[in-house]
Model the fold of this input.
Amino acid sequence: MRKSLKTGVAALMLTCMAGNAWAAGAAGCARPADLTAIKAAAVQQKLMVAALSCDAIQLYNSFVTSYQKELQASDRSLQNFFRRLNGRTGTEDYHAFKTRLANGSSMQSIGNITDYCSSAKQVFAQALDGPKATLAVFVSGQTTSADNTFAPCQFRTADADDSDSLPPDIAPLPHFKPGTIVMWVRTATVVWPK
Done:
């Protein structure tokens, strides 16, 4: 009986943890690596449109060649992000997202081609002139149309130096008889005699 109860509590705890991870993904929040992949896709789509609209094919080819492995890894990360959000439609959502980015960039270029090309050439210069930074570092300095598309996942951590992150009134731990087994599961406490 006790063994099955312990197994049940452990299963409940794992389910809660998995549920929290699933809820974060289902809510549409993005982890830092996801946000970088989203930004990289937006920058790449902007530069791809500039290659065609601003006669910047050579610059675009240089950009893709310089960051090729990182762009490929970032694109896989973006696909995985959309699959995590929705396993059933993730691949289609990924393609739709990239299409929206390209269409948005195309509409911006149509709206004001001079400003669009000037902005794109500045981005090319930042990406290609001087010492090459990683793709993540490069895109972190760019402002894109996708910057506010997904909310970052909120992770709360507390360390010894971060006393402000602790609750203001911490209740004292309850006292139990010696030999009592106590397991704390999120907001519920499960207690059973030994």
In short: Strands lie at 181-185, 188-192.
